[in-house]
């Protein structure tokens, strides 16, 4: 009897933070993983640090570039021959009052956070269809459901991605492709270090019932679960992993 080949996941924004923790989670379960990131050097060193060259593939790609995304999917197929899960994790944040949000910043946030997942899904779904199905997880944010100051662009991009998740779940169900989202509360990654001021940090701690930031590994666990067979009947859902922040109903700092 021949054993079936290890499953394959593609994680965008995989060089660090929640993306890299997710890569490690998949590898721990015996999957093979394509690490896609715009930061080529960082992502190559992340892949090297995993010390698992047979099971990893580093791809330098901007998720907002349709041709580059198609080439990335081709690279995954040429190396691994299949694609079982896509994690649309790459994202950028600019926190600024709406009147001070640059037109370019607005456009870039939409391009990376919303158009990127659209392009990656469009390129990945036909590959999944060929092999009878797959799973997609989009990383949104608690900012998708809570309006606040400073996040007009970021929150709107993530709310768009949350809705896209539901649209895709309904449309792609006939291809046996499940589509869900994970909505993190604050996680102390490079992104949070860049946009969370001291005041925002203090307010978050007060507003989160569990009283702390989330860990990258806690997000990775939820993302892996939604990609796994254990979630075989779950599609179109947005799972908040936020220490109870959304449930508490307190405004974002
Ligand atoms: P991070 O900045 O640490 O990592 C993001 C990665 O995405 C980086 O490696 C970066 O190089 C890559 N990236 C950026 N633009 C890209 C592009 N155009 N194409 C390909 N790769 C690109 O961020 P993180 O905190 O790990 O965030 C991961 C996801 O989680 C993001 O979508 C973010 O919006 C979301 N999120 C984070 C938090 C938080 O508090 N950290 C909260 C809610 C949601």
UniProtKB/TrEMBL annotation:
The keyword Oxidoreductase applies. It comes from the Bacteria. Pfam families: adh_short_C2. InterPro entries: NAD(P)-bd_dom_sf, Sc_DH/Rdtase_CS, SDR_fam. Keywords: Oxidoreductase. Belongs to the short-chain dehydrogenases/reductases (SDR) family. This is SDR family oxidoreductase. It comes from Bradyrhizobium campsiandrae.
């Amino acid at each position: 009897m021949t054993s079936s080949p290890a499953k394959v996941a593609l994680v965008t924004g995989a060089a660090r933070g929640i993306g890299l923790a997710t890569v490690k989670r998949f590898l721990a379960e015996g999957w093979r993983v394509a690490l896609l990131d715009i930061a080529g050097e960082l992502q190559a060193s992340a892949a090297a640090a995993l010390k698992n060259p047979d099971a990893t593939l580093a791809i330098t790609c901007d998720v907002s570039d349709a041709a580059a995304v198609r080439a990335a999917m081709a690279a995954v197929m040429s190396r691994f021959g299949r694609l079982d899960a896509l994690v649309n994790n790459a994202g950028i944040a600019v926190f600024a009052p709406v009147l001070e949000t640059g037109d370019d910043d607005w456009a870039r946030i939409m391009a990376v956070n919303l158009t990127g997942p659209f392009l990656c899904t469009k390129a990945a779904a036909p590959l999944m269809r060929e092999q009878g199905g797959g799973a997609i997880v989009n990383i949104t944010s608690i900012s998708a459901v809570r309006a606040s100051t400073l996040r007009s662009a970021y929150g709107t991009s993530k709310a768009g991605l949350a809705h896209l998740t539901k649209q895709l779940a309904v449309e792609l169900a006939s291809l046996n492709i499940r589509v869900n989202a994970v909505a993190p509360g604050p996680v102390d990654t490079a992104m949070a270090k860049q946009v969370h001021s001291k005041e925002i940090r203090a307010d978050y701690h007060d507003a989160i019932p569990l009283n702390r930031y989330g860990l990258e590994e806690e997000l990775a666990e939820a993302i892996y679960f939604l990609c796994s067979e254990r979630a075989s009947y779950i599609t179109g859902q947005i799972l908040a992993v936020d220490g109870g922040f959304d449930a508490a109903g307190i405004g974002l700092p």
